[in-house]
Amino acid sequence: MNSPSRVISFVNAGHFIDHYSMLIFAAAVIIMGPALGMAYSELLPYATPGFVAFGAGSLLTGWLGDRWSRRHMMLIFFIGIGASMIAVGFVQTPVQLGAALLAIGIFASIYHPVGTAMIVSYADRLGREMGINGVWGNLGVASSALVTGVIGQYLGWRFAFIVPGVVTILIGIGFAMSVVHEDRKGSKQAAAQARVAKQDMWRVVLSLLIVVIAISTTFNAVTVALPKLFAERLADLTKSPALLGVIAACVYVFGAMTQYTIGRLLDRYSLKTVALPLSFMLAPFLYLAASLNNLPLIVVSIGIVMGAFGQVTVNDAMVGKYTAEEWRSRAYAVRYFVGFTAAGASVGLVAWLYEQGGFVTMLHAFAALCLLAIAAALILPREIRTPQPA
């Protein structure tokens, strides 16, 4: 039998790698552009197929996780995404770059429907483990900007992909040696389930659909655009790619703390009680960020990542609470298919909005989109309290 703590540790590491790998390009593109002789707005769209595959591939990977093996799918994730990162480090043309980034997106699509379902199956306290898992993903986002900036400045952008690729393959080997194919008979479900009135389930589905589209699009747009936004708006503080990476990483740390806090709150309170106040954070902070520079921009950016990453934890817990074990990977697959497909479109949208009016237009547009998060939280029904076994 697998040790729950060991499985969860590897799955958390996978969450770190998943987000780290998808955002190396967002940080490296600043120095890749001059090296390849292309502008930021010309180079960024090459990441779009990878982000679309990140979401679209989850339907197949979630099905395979339920019907075949979550353990085997996670092993493919570690080895495949590591090899794909290494491949980016050896590209010579924009077409090769797009193909390698697409491969990263395909393998990255395995993690969320499969890894998140494993977390739910092995967790004793769902909210706490979801919060901790979210922290690992957020640390991956933060570390991507930081480590890519440092490696890119001192070793070049190619090593910014090669080094984490090698490390990921080594972690995959450790996973293969430590985790066996799971037997899900009798897996824990009570901790993962909650109840709403049967006639109110349509409200859960509608709320999830609205908030996933709005938050996934905004989440991806912010994480893709933040390195470039800081490079433009923090010029009075620093122009060093490494230091800009440090600042971005520090901002993301607040998002990590928020995810842990939200996870703990979800163990004590209903989803609606936690989601409603959280939904009011993003729109005003995004609107304010459009006109700020230097230190005020950093402070407001902290509010943006706290709102975005906190919402992600709520969304994941919603699926975990309301789905049964045998359908859980597929339920997460649908959630991430919708979310990451919308997120994939956000890369091209960021590039287009940036051309139209810079970051002012982009941030105002996403502030308006995040008003939908408030509507989604209002739609959520109340949970039915059930007595806990002694």
Automatic annotation (TrEMBL):
SUPFAM superfamilies: MFS general substrate transporter. It comes from the Bacteria. Its main location: membrane. Residues 7-385 form the Major facilitator superfamily (MFS) profile domain. The chain crosses the membrane at residues 20-40, 46-65, 72-91, 97-123, 135-155, 161-180, 201-222, 242-262, 269-289, 295-314, 334-354, 360-380. The keyword ATP-binding does not apply. It is a multi-pass membrane protein. Gene3D superfamilies: MFS general substrate transporter like domains. Keywords: Cell membrane, Membrane, Transmembrane, Transmembrane helix, Transport. Pfam families: MFS_1 (PF07690). It is found in: Cell membrane. InterPro entries: MFS (IPR011701), MFS_dom (IPR020846), MFS_trans_sf (IPR036259), MFS_Transporters (IPR050171). The keyword Transmembrane helix applies. This is MFS transporter. It comes from Bradyrhizobium vignae.
